[in-house]
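Quick log. Single chain, no ligands specified.
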Amino acid sequence: MSKQKIIVSGMRPSGRLHLGNYIGALQNWIRLQQEYRCYYFIADWHALTTGYEESAEIRENSREMLVDWLSAGLDPETSVIFRQSDILEHAELFLLLGMITPISWLERCPTFKEQLRELEGKNINTYGFLGYPALQAADILAYRADAVPVGEDQAPHLEFTREVARRFNYLYGKVFPEPETLLSKFTLVPGIDSRKMSKSYGNYIAMSATPEEVREKVHLMVTDPQRVRRHDPGRPEVCTVYRFHEIFNQPGAAGVGEECRSAGIGCVQCKGLLAEKLAAYLQPVFEKRRELEQKPEYLDEILHEGGKRAREAAQATLAAVREAMGL
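-> predicted structure:
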């Protein structure tokens, strides 16, 4: 019987997740746990790389994100779910990998330059921010992952991890596999204003939204700006509401598009239909979250047990690393 392959992935805790997180990444994680041994972690140390001045909310945000993960369908019996900062071996491996990582590798990381531009005015010229790709490599290599699920824009980060693993193995002998890129097809969910869905834009729909909150958000969605009157024909290809129909109203989206083009349906009616479809889609997640919020001890137990399982695997890796390095 072949050994089950290992994958590792994490998310920075920013509080409750929105539909973009749910459709874009979380649903993929849920599918993967059926065929891989999965380590999913709350990346609270990573949250400090750009948010070290606002660290007071990390603990609560971690809790909220954990509840969303479980509400969506991550199974703590199948997957190892834990908090990054509970596993000190991540920090030790980060330090050791930092000893062999050329600074030029860190400086050429595309996200490093992008974030410096996007967060201009925020003081992130820190050692931690420059070195976070090495911490990310430690997160992955601590479990000797066989693969990591990423989108195309994240592939350079994984290639960095592969390079670090290759360099370590060259210097000290084979300890780490070079994790494969498990490319995922991420469905892009727009925000209600047609921009990328983001908490920083305030244009998101929480995956834990109540039916009332869903209806309120859908009511605010941007539609075809050229459709001024009810009987004007619409252009669904430029309408945010129709994009949501394509994602959440299948197989009914095609019919909605035809009705829009022929002015058989108005924007208000179209939004009402979407609101009901979306509310029904999210109802199981909302109900599960409400149930989990009444079980704080259960949430603590999941992190405790997940941390114990993760720590055992990471400790075995660090023992091999120290042996290889002669420490």
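Residues 18 and 199 are 8 Å apart (CA to CA).
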